[in-house]
Design a protein that fits this description.
alpha/beta; Aspartate Aminotransferase, domain 2; about 35% helix; seven-stranded mixed sheet; four-stranded mixed sheet
């Protein structure tokens, strides 16, 4: 089949039916609403031409919104080079430069690339266990996680995710995980042991758990207890990192430096990419063959990630995020006067409205009015607009939200 006929065949398949049939997709999601066909800036456009203002950013992925010219150019250059994939058996420049930039901008000495946030957390657990085994033997393998956490849906990351309903159908999961409530100093001291604990993992801002910023004092306590136990501290910044809080890395606002940090969602502008940042003392425990990835850090994905990282790390970009964050905070805090709103929490452009009622009907009503928002648990509205959102779009979305709140 020629290239032209192949393109025609694909176009014919996409246009085959007026009614979308997605029954062949495995039903692990319940997608609703319109069929989206294109997008630009902070707006999605459905097949019927209606536009929707997006306060989800693809669940925190589209930091630069949709149709960004810089991302498109980086992608086009990568495709034109013809080197979409070569595997990590060989060297390419984009991954090496991206790793160097992440090291320069952070606490880290080394970077491991993968394809998703769950993979990044799985990798971090493996690195921590290998390091801890050398330090304290096989007994020193446990992971301490926080109540209300979410770290992914693979066997290790799910084991460290405080969702019994998510875990139960897939038991037994990775053993050796203990949970501690945020602020429970006595519980943390009991759970973290020099003999047992390999690592502590925490989200600087809990996302799926309802938008709970980690108090700096408790983060500092976790760092202290990790040091006393000869354990590692992992920060999961998959949703809250790379500019989302108004700082490049969320840990910068806590006064705490981790030993490992995981990234994913916005890193490659919508292409699948995760990363583990780690110090030399942890990296020194790993040797070739201990871990691997076929696709992680591929040249096309890394090239796009370099564009994203360069943009979101710029001081003027982060200053704009903080300015928009203040604007958003004032509007949301005004909603506390509503009888339906119990609490408002967040940092940067990552906010949650805890309601006295179910969040689902508000999400549905917002969609009807042309605004995409998320829930985070049964009664929390989660707001994650693109970091590049225009002030007028931010204000319009907040106005629609106020209109649909009961």
């Amino acid at each position: 089949m020629s290239r032209e006929s192949s393109r025609a065949a694909v176009a014919a398949l996409l246009a085959m039916a007026a009614e979308l049939d997605d029954s062949a997709l495995l039903g692990v999601y319940q997608p609703t609403g319109p069929v989206f066909a294109s997008a630009r800036g902070s707006r999605l456009i459905a097949e019927d031409g209606r536009q929707y203002l997006d306060f989800t950013a693809g669940i925190g992925v589209n930091a630069l919104g949709y149709g960004d010219d810089g991302v498109a150019e980086a992608f086009a250059v990568g495709v034109a080079a013809g080197l979409l994939h070569i595997s990590n058996l060989y060297r390419t420049r984009p991954a090496a430069v991206l790793a160097s930039e992440l090291v320069r901008l952070s606490f880290a000495d080394k970077v491991f690339f993968c394809n998703s946030g769950a993979e990044a957390n799985e990798g971090a657990f493996k690195f921590a266990r290998k390091w801890a085994r050398q330090a304290g033997g096989p007994a020193k393998h446990e992971i301490v996680a926080l109540r209300n956490s979410f770290h992914g849906r693979l066997f290790g990351s799910l084991a460290a995710t405080d969702r019994p309903a998510y875990q139960e159908p897939f038991q037994p999961l990775m053993p050796g995980v203990r949970f501690v409530a945020i602020g429970d100093e006595a519980g943390a001291r009991e759970a973290i042991s020099a003999e047992r604990t390999a690592a502590i993992i925490a989200e600087p801002v809990q996302g799926e758990g309802g938008i709970h910023p980690l108090p700096a004092e408790f983060a500092q306590l976790l760092r202290k207890l990790a040091d006393e136990a000869g354990a590692l501290l992992i920060f999961d910044e998959i949703q809250c990192g790379l500019g989302r809080t108004g700082r490049l890395f969320a840990y910068e606002g806590l006064g705490v430096i981790p030993d490992l940090l995981t990234l994913a969602k916005p890193l490659a502008g919508g292409l699948p990419m995760g990363a583990v940042l780690l110090t030399e003392r942890v990296a020194g425990a790993m040797k070739p063959g201990d871990h691997g990835t076929t696709f992680g850090g591929g040249p096309l994905t890394a090239r796009v990630a370099l564009e994203v990282l360069g943009r979101v790390s710029a001081p003027e970009f982060l200053a704009e995020v903080r300015w928009k964050a203040d604007r958003m905070a004032r509007a949301l805090e005004a909603l506390l006067a509503r009888p339906s709103v119990k609490a408002v929490r967040g940092l940067g452009l990552m906010w949650g409205l805890e309601l006295h009622t179910e969040a689902g009907p508000v999400v549905a009503d917002a969609l009807e009015q042309g605004l995409l928002i998320l829930s985070a648990g049964a009664n929390v509205i989660r707001l994650l607009p693109p970091l590049s959102i225009e002030p007028a779009d931010l204000d319009q979305g907040l106005t629609i939200l106020a209109e649909v709140l009961p």
